[in-house]
Specification:
The protein is 7% helix and 39% strand. It contains five helices and 31 strands. It starts with a helix and ends in a 16-residue tail after the last strand. It is mainly beta and 445 residues long. The strands form eight sheets. It has a five-stranded mixed sheet with strand order 14-18-17-16-15, with no helix packed on it. The radius of gyration is 20 Å and the shape is globular. The chain has one domain: YVTN repeat-like/Quinoprotein amine dehydrogenase (Methylamine Dehydrogenase, Chain H, 7 Propeller).
Length: 445
């Protein structure tokens, strides 16, 4: 049954791909795609003490220029308390949006299809740690056929970086846990370099190569700590991930552990039918790394470009690959800059654009047609800057138009001024995905 579903979804994706003109470029290949203008951006937002109700919330912004509410927050749903809201991900049918907290390990599942303008809380998973066997800090929620794969950042034994991935049904029922390979339990993986620390962070897949790829960050003890104190603690700074792991997608078995020193974060894989590679960036060493299949069919990793001046700790965070694989957007949180690299030769990226957008910057989401680029600012509650040193934006959601050479601002929402909190991950939504029309269109015929 799984194989049939896998095949059907993959065929549907390839059929839809040539006509896609919107949507985010960095989603799972199993997901239904938006093939026109996105209507909404759903923003998973950290609560801030003294700002509004202080709770984590899902904030919905209208981004359709034909809408009367364009550029406005049209809905906000608080979930109770502060959970260290971080990442979110849509199911393969895009009916539900999973959003999690790195501190409490709670997962909130939002219904975004009944009324795309006003998501509602459908289900809350409170037993993630117990069901998974001790995984802490749900991070990436990644769509597989009929399933969600949730990466962890930590564990409940020592709150360090050893962790695993947890597999659920789309309905939110636990299936199994896949632990990251370590020196004392490689689980059949080839340790090709010096490291096998068991750290986790992001996950992406290349179905036609039967490959799943994971990256690595750090544990709860570090990511819940004040950044200044953390960076001053030499021992704590040693406890970051230095690996990317290549997995068998179907069996979920680790095959090869690659050394990628410096905390490799987001993974973004090329879309081309003959492009057997992905990119990641290292937070601590400020480099772009290429994860690629060589001529012998072996997966390798190498640093291919520097991002700014590593001595100034720009701290690369989110990245976004363009639909044609020729460019890579790279955000650096600490200096508030976005950079664009020409990746037409993935083995030798070159920077072609740079602009500062605020005091800090984190997430980037671009439309499939490459004409719109969205940005948010928040990284982690104890790492975020609270004030601007130069009267710049601190916590924001911004939309820019991109013409290939210039980012032209379309609108900005100041999340503190709006009493919302700290905006983190973005996901697109659209009425047309569910056979619906915007309220103002109903009866227009």
């Amino acid at each position: 049954m799984f194989t049939r579903v896998f095949a059907c979804v993959l065929v549907a994706w390839f059929v839809a791909l040539p006509i896609a003109s919107a949507d985010e470029t960095c989603m799972s290949p199993y997901m239904a795609k938006i093939v026109g203008q996105e209507d909404f951006v759903y923003i998973w937002t950290l609560g801030m003490e003294g700002v509004g109700d202080g709770q984590d919330k899902m904030v919905n912004v209208d981004v359709n220029p034909d809408s009367e509410a364009y550029g406005q927050v049209v809905h906000s749903l608080s979930v109770g308390g502060r959970n260290e809201a971080h990442h979110s991900g849509l199911t393969d049918d895009r009916r539900y949006l999973w959003a999690s907290g790195l501190d409490t390990s709670k997962i909130f599942i939002f219904d975004v299809h009944t009324d795309p303008a006003a998501p509602r809380l459908h289900k809350q998973i409170d037993d993630f740690v117990a069901k998974s066997g001790g995984v802490v800090g749900p991070h990436t929620s990644y769509a597989l056929p009929g399933r969600m794969l949730v990466t962890g950042l930590s564990n409940n034994r020592d709150h360090g970086g050893r962790t695993g991935m947890v597999e659920y049904t789309n309905a939110g029922d636990y299936i199994t846990t896949h632990w990251m390979p370590t020196d004392d339990n490689l689980n059949g993986a080839d340790k090709s370099g010096s490291f096998a620390g068991g750290y986790g962070y992001d996950v992406r897949v290349l179905p036609r190569r039967n490959v799943m790829i994971t990256s690595s960050f750090t544990g709860w003890n570090n990511y819940m700590r004040n950044l200044g104190q953390l960076m001053a603690d030499a021992e704590a700074m040693k406890r970051f991930g230095n690996t990317v792991v290549i997995w068998d997608l179907h069996t979920r078995q680790p095959k090869k552990i690659l050394d990628v020193p410096g905390a490799p974060l987001e993974i973004r894989c090329a879309w081309g039918s003959n492009s057997n590679y992905c990119f990641t960036t290292t937070a601590l060493t400020s480099q772009i790394w290429l994860i690629y299949e060589d001529a012998q069919g072996e997966w390798q990793a190498k640093a291919v470009a520097d991002i700014g001046d590593a001595s100034k700790v720009p701290l690369p965070v989110d990245i976004s690959i363009t639909a044609d694989d020729n460019h890579l957007w790279v955000n650096t949180w600490n200096d508030g800059k976005v950079r664009l690299f020409d990746t037409s030769d993935p083995h030798a990226p070159t920077q072609v654009f740079e602009q500062q957008l605020g005091e800090q910057i984190n997430m980037v989401s671009q439309s499939w047609d490459g004409e719109r680029v969205y940005f948010t600012s928040s990284l982690l509650a104890n790492w975020d800057k609270l004030e601007s040193a130069a009267d710049q934006d601190v916590q924001y959601f911004k939309l820019f138009n991109w013409d290939g050479s210039t980012l032209t601002p379309e609108f900005t929402i100041d999340f503190i001024a709006e009493n919302l909190g700290s905006p983190h991950q973005m996901r697109f939504g659209a009425y047309a995905l569910y056979g619906l029309r915007a309220p103002e269109q109903v009866g227009a015929d």
